[in-house]
Design a protein that fits this description.
Rhomboid-like fold; mainly alpha; about 190 residues
């Protein structure tokens, strides 16, 4: 009787690629004392004539302030991302990441004087989007309602009542992207 050979599969190339880019960006941020984050891996108000403004509008989702920030986000990305990539495909997951990055960059530039970096918006988009996996047309999944109340509600509460260095606005925008995309991609007709 032959023993089955176990092999490692590259099951979610977009999610794994995203995590790898985030790892490299985090290392660069640490090695450069934050200079790489300021230059490429965070978004903030800057001139539209500066080409780096457009790079930062996407690049900010790759940078992280340190290992704890990186590991917290990657746990969710690596847990939820493969499920979503299997259901929706590589192209759609790239679209979710891109829409989340650009939307949070634009809204951050309009509403906040602070820099923004990290994949937290993408995490919240994935959290809300995964709650749509059992969606049927004409129904609102209870899991979506609970996720919206728990995760988004918590971020609204913290945004109002706490003064920390966390961008609840980025989380809320990511959750909104996940909700809109999840509804649009799962409705019939």
């Amino acid at each position: 009787m032959k023993k089955a050979k176990l092999k490692i599969s590259f099951n979610a190339p977009v999610v794994l690629g995203f995590a790898f880019i985030c790892l490299i960006a985090t290392i660069l941020g640490i090695v450069t004392g934050g200079a790489a984050n300021t230059l490429v891996f965070s978004t903030y108000r800057s001139s539209f004539l500066n080409p780096l403004t457009y790079i930062r509008a996407i690049g900010h989702v790759f940078g992280h302030s340190g290992w704890s920030h990186f590991f917290n986000n990657m746990c969710y990305i690596l847990l939820l991302g493969p499920i979503l990539e299997e259901k929706y495909g590589q192209k759609k997951i790239c679209i979710v990441i891109l829409i989340t990055a650009v939307a949070t960059a634009i809204i951050n530039a309009i509403l906040s004087p602070n820099a923004l970096l990290g994949a937290s918006g993408v995490v919240f988009a994935f959290i809300v989007l995964v709650s749509f996996t059992g969606f049927k047309d004409g129904e609102i999944p209870l899991t979506f309602i609970l996720v919206a109340l728990i995760y988004i509600g918590q971020q609204v509460f913290q945004g109002i009542f706490t003064n920390d260095n966390v961008s609840q606005m980025g989380h809320i925008i990511g959750g909104a992207v996940g909700a809109v995309v999840g509804y649009c991609w799962n409705r019939k007709g």
